[in-house]
Amino acid sequence: MKKFIANTEIDVNDEGYLTDFSQWNKDIGNELAKEQEIEMTDKHWEVIDYIHDKYKNEEPLSIRGIKKSGVINIKEFYALFPAGPLKKATLIAGIPKPKSCI
Amino acid sequence: MSTKVKKMLFILSKATIENAYAAFVMANGARMEGIESEIFFTFFGLEAIQKKKLEHLKVATVGNPGMHIPTMIGGLPGMEALATKMMKKEMDKLDMPPVDEFLEILSDSGCKLWACKLAVDMFHLDREDLIDDLDGILTIGDFYSRADQEGCQLLFI
């Protein structure tokens, strides 16, 4: 479905995830974060950069991966993106929701 | 009326690795979905949080139809170790953390870890025998009071 955000029209699925990453930019990320009641800081963007790197290298995301990332620890990750951090961070990053169970 | 699950409480009563991981994966999965989670370790489940024992959890090769080996053979020396080694290899392929790291991940993710007081007393354990990340030792009454909220589910493993 279509969604109008940050003066741009984007395509999202029924859970609100972008279906075409090429439509993503930082303004859209910011607006998507606001919808999740998250105010983006430099630390948030560092995590989003890490997630984009993983996505581009086609490496699956997991909580264990976050622990090993060297970017952020698990406690901080849960604090920055409360209530389902991987789900929220990937939504803001404009990539599909992770399919991992761990 | 909202029917959304808000909190999951797991009771782990067994020491086999497959049961411990079932509790860990589901408790961690709940946190990843934004659901509160807690694990209450009781009876043999306490092995999973004993510093000296948690790395030695085994797969049950006897009385486990899922193994598809005759019970007599499952009872032979070394079978348990072999099956456990094979399962750990498969879990490693899926990037599943070992028990100690999994407990650390759970604790860091905000999952509360509790030991059952009665079982701790029964096995003559002290606080120092249990992992540092443990949130405390509770009576069953204390545990039930933690369940006393809307949208809370209890699961016995």
H/I helix tally of chain A:
5
Query: What is the tally of helical segments of chain B?
Result: 6
Helix percentage range of chain B: 25-40%
* CATH class term of chain B: Alpha Beta
Uncertain runs of chain B: none
Structural class of chain B: alpha/beta
Order of strands, widest sheet of chain A: 1-2
Percent range of helical residues of chain A: 40-55%
Give the uncertain stretches of chain A in residue-range form: none
Largest interface: A-B, 18 and 16 residues
Plain-language structure description:
The complex is a heterodimer of chains A (102) and B (157). The mean pLDDT of chain A is 91. In chain A, strand 1 (2-5) and strand 2 (8-11) form a beta hairpin. Chain A has helices at residues 26-35, 42-56, 63-68, 74-80, 85-93, and strands at residues 2-5, 8-11. Helices cover 46% and strands 8% of the residues of chain A. The N and C termini of chain A lie far apart (29 Å). Chain A is globular. By secondary structure, chain B is of the alpha/beta class. In chain B, 38% of the residues lie in helices and 16% in strands. The mean pLDDT of chain B is 91. The chains are: A mainly alpha (102), B alpha/beta (157). At the A-B interface, helix 3, helix 4 and helix 5 of A face helix 1 and helix 4 of B.
